[in-house]
Amino acid sequence: MNILIDHFTTNYNSAPFDLIQNKDFKPAILKLIEDTKKEIDAIVTNTAQPTFENTIEALEFSGQQLDRVTSIFFNLNSAETNDEIQKIAQDISPILSEFGNDITLNNDLFKKVKHVFDNKDQLNLTTEQSTLLDKKYKSFSRNGANLPEDKKQELRAIDKQLASLKLKFGENILAETNAFEMLITNQEDLSGLPEGAIEAAKQLAESKNKEGWLITLDYPSYIPFMTYADNRALRKKLSLTFGAKGFNNNDYDNQEHVLKIAKLRHQRANLLGYKTHADFVLEERMAQTPEKVTSFLNELLEKAKPAAEREFTNLQNFAKELDGIDVLEKWDSAYYSEKLKQKLFNLDDEQLKPYFKLENVIEGAFLVANKLFGLQFKKIETIDKYHEDVMTFEVLDDNNNLVSLFYADFFPRPGKRNGAWMTSFKPQYIKDGVNQRPHISNVCNFTKPTKSKPSLLTFNEVTTLFHEFGHGLHGMLANTTYPSLSGTSVYWDFVELPSQILENWCYEKDALELFAKHYQTNEVIPMDLVNKIKESATFHEGMQTLRQISFGLLDMSWHGTDPSLIEDVKAYETKAFENTNLYPEVKSNCMSTAFAHIFQGGYSSGYYSYKWAEVLDADAFEYFKEEGIFNKEVAAKFKDHVLSQGGTENPMTLYKRFRGQEPKPEALLKRAGLIK
Ligand SMILES: [Zn+2]
C-alpha cells in the first residue's frame, strides 16, 4: 500500500502530507514512470490516424500522477528536507531526466506529433490548442528530431561537449574563488567594517586555525569588505583578484572555455537551422529576436546614460571632497556609494520594521488581492501541512467559488533552502469538463517572532512577500485547459511581470495605509518615511541600469553573432563594453571568464530579461496609476488577459490586449528618476 500511487482522496484533493512516508517516494516514482511509459506506448501504438486528441492532448495528460508526486517531492526537498530526502533526490533525479530524454528522443512518437503539426491548418484548433501543438512539436524539433541520423549524432556530440565545458567553467571559477584568502592581522585594516562582518571574518580565520581575520572572494565576505572597508589598498587588492577569476593564465583559466562554448552553441544553432544561438533561444521568448533585444538595450542605454554620467560625476566629486580621491576606480564604487547614500538618506531598517508586522503585511497582500480581483483568503485547518509553521488558506472569488488553495511557509528552519519562491503542489487545468483548481505555495525565510516581539519585516522582506505573492496570484488565477500552459508556465522574460508589478503597491500611500501600521501604536507609516524609501530605492539607478545593460550587451555580443573568428576574449569584451564604461579600464580583469550566468547557467541570450521585466512591470503599473491603483476595470483586464491566460498565447499579444499597446521604457525611466 503506497499512498502516492493513486489519486488522493483528501480534502480538496490536497497533498496527503500526514500519510506520506519518505520511503514511499522512490517506489512510487518508479512505478509511476512505468505507468507513464505505458500511456505513451499507447499513443505510439495506436493504429488510428494521429489527431490532436489522440496524440497531443493524450501526451499532455500523460503522467499526471507522476507530475504530482515529483512536485510534492521536490517541494519538500526545497522547504523541508533531510538526509533521507536528499539521498532519494540524488537517486531519482538522473532517472527522471533520462525518462524525459527518452520521450524527446522517441522517434515514433515524434512522427505522430509531426503528422498532427504538418496538418495543423486543417484541424480547426483553438488558440490554446495551437499553442500546445507548437510547444509539443518544438520540444522535439529543438532537440534535433527533424535531423538526419548523422546530424543527430553531431548534435548529441555537441551537447556532450557543452555539458562538460560548462561544468569545467564553473569548477574553475570555484577553484579560483577558493584559492584566494586575505588574512588580516592588523586590526586597523578592519576599519569601517560593521560588527557582523568582523565577527564573521574572525570565525572564518578560527575555523582554519589562523590568527586574525580572514576575507575571501565569497559574496558574504567580499561584498561587505568592498562596501565598508576604509583601507583603499586592500579594497583594490580584493577587487583586482575578484575581477581576474578565470583570467590568470593558470590551470583554471577560462578563456578557451568561453571561446569553445560560444562557438559550439553557434554550431548547434546552425545545425538546427537558426542563424545564431540567440536566434535559437529567443524564439521561445517574448522578445523573439536578437535585433529586438539589442535595440531594446540600446534604447535604454541612450536614455539612462546621461543620468549615469551625472551620478558618476557626483560620486567622483563626493570622493574627492571626502578623501581627496582624484580618480574614482572600480574598487571605490560600492564604498563611496554607500557613504553617499548614508549621507543623503540616513535610512535604516530599524526605523521601518515596526510598521511591518508580518501578520499585517500578509493581511495587506490579501487586501490588495481582494480590492483588485475580489479574492477572499480564509484560513483553513482541514488539510495536511508538511510543517506546523505552514499556514493554509482557501481562496474564494466573490461568488464564493474555490479559486485555489494557498500555502504560506514564511520562517527559516534547518532543512529549508535560502531565499524566497513560489511553487505549486497541483497545477490548474480543465479535464472532462471539470476545472481543477491549483494548490499554490509561497516559501520565504523571514525573521521569526520571539517571546517579546512579533515578526517585524524589513522593507526588503515586505517587497519580497509581495513579489512572491504576485507569482502566487499568477498561479491561483490560472484558467486554462492544459496544465503545461497554465499559470506561471510562460516565456521566461514574461514570468516576472505579475511578481514585480505587485511590488509597486508597497510604495503607494493608499495601499500602505491598509497595512503599514506600527505594531505597538497602530499609527500608519509617516509619508516622509515612505518618500525616503522611494528615493533611496532609486539611488544610483542610472549607474545600476548602465551596468545591467552592459552585461546584457556582452551576453548578446557573445551569442547574437557568429563567434567563429573571435580569438581574443578580453579584446572582444572590451569592444562590447565600449559604450557603457564609467570607471577606468582594468587590463588584468575580465568579466566573460567568470560570467557564470551565461556560460554556465541558463541565462545565455537572456541577461536582458532583468531589465525587460522591469520595463514591463513599470509600464503595466503606469496604467494602474493613470486609472487608480485599485481600479477594478484595469485589474479585470490584467486578470483576464495576463494572469488567467498563462502561456496560451504569445505574451506580447496578451500584453497588448491588456495595455492597448506594446510596453514602452518611459515609465521605468520615470520611476527610476532617470527622465522627468
Ligand atoms: Zn520572481
What can you see in these coordinates?
Helix 1 packs antiparallel against helix 2, helix 5 runs antiparallel to helix 6 and helix 18 crosses helix 24. The chain has 27 helices and nine strands. It is globular, with a radius of gyration of 26 Å. With 676 residues, it is an alpha+beta fold. The site of zinc ion (ZN) has 4 residues, from helix 17.
Describe the protein's topology.
Blueprint: H1 22-45, H2 52-60, H3 64-79, H4 83-104, H5 107-118, H6 127-141, H7 149-179, E1 181-184, H8 195-207, E2 213-216, H9 219-228, H10 232-243, H11 255-271, H12 277-282, H13 290-323, H14 333-345, H15 349-352, H16 358-373, E3 376-379, E4 391-396, E5 402-409, E6 421-426, E7 429-431, E8 434-436, E9 439-443, H17 459-476, H18 497-503, H19 509-515, H20 527-537, H21 541-559, H22 569-576, H23 596-599, H24 609-627, H25 632-643, H26 651-659, H27 666-671
Parallel strand pairs: 5-9
Antiparallel strand pairs: 1-2, 3-4, 4-5, 6-9, 7-8
Bound molecules: zinc ion.
Strand order of the largest sheet: 3-4-5-9-6
Q: What fraction, in percent, of the residue positions are helical?
A: 55-70%
Shape category: globular
Q: Compute the separation of the termini in Å.
A: 67 Å
Content of β-strand: 5-15%
Helix/strand structural class:
alpha+beta
Strand segment tally = 9
Return the average pLDDT rounded to an integer. Answer: 96
| Radius of gyration based on Cα positions | 26 Å
Named once each, the bound ligands are:
zinc ion
Low-confidence stretches: none
Q: Main beta sheet: strand number and arrangement?
A: 5 strands, mixed
> Total number of helical segments?
27
